[in-house]
Amino acid sequence: MGIREAKVAVLDNLGAPKDKGVLRALLGFLNDYRRFIPNFSKRAHRLNQLLREGQAWKWEPKEEQARRDLLEAIKAGTVLQLPRRDEPFTLNTDWSSMGMGAVLCHEVEGEERVVAYASRSCTATEANYSSYEGEGLVAVWGVTHFRAYLQGQRFTLIIDHQPLLWLMTNRSLTGRNARWAMRLQEYDFIIKHHAGKTLQHADGLSRNPPPA
Fold it and tell me: What count of other Cβ atoms lies within 10 Å of the Cβ of residue 149?
C-alpha cells in the first residue's frame, strides 16, 4: 500500500509558502499522508513551530529545507505493510518530555514491516512525568490508539523502560498507575524490553511530536 503518484505529482510545482495561511494549508495536505512517512513529526517540526501563536513569519533556508524534505518523503511513497489478522502484531512505544511515539508492525519473513505510525505531543502535565510514568502513559496511549488492530489479538508490546514491567505484575498500585494497569488488562499481550536506541521509529516520533 503506497501513495499514488497522481496525487503527489502536483507537488513538483509547489512554491514556497508566502504566509502562515499557505503553510497551514500545505501542512494540512501533508498531514493526510503522515502514516506513510517515518518520523513525520520530526520532519514537520520546524514548520509547525512557525505556526505557533505569536511567532513572527520568517521563511529561511532551514524552513525551505524542511519543506523540501517533506515533499520528497511524500513523493517517495513509503510503502506500509497491509494489516493481516493472521499475523501477530508488535507495538513499539517511546515517551519523551516532548511527546509520544508508537509504531505498529508485523514480522513478515523474518523482517519487521511497519503497518502504521502514530505520535502526539505531551500536555504540560504529561511533560513533567517521570520516565517510568511516561512510559506507562505511552503504552496505554499506543495500545488504545491502535485498538482496532489489537483488540482480541495477542501481540507484543516493546518498551524501552524495564521497570514498566512492574506495572502489570504489582498488585498494590494506586492512582493513575492502577487505572493504566486496568486499561491494559483488556488486551492480550506480552511485554519485551529493548533499549531506546533500538526503537528508532518510536523514539524519533516521541522526540519530535506534532504541536499539542
Answer: 18
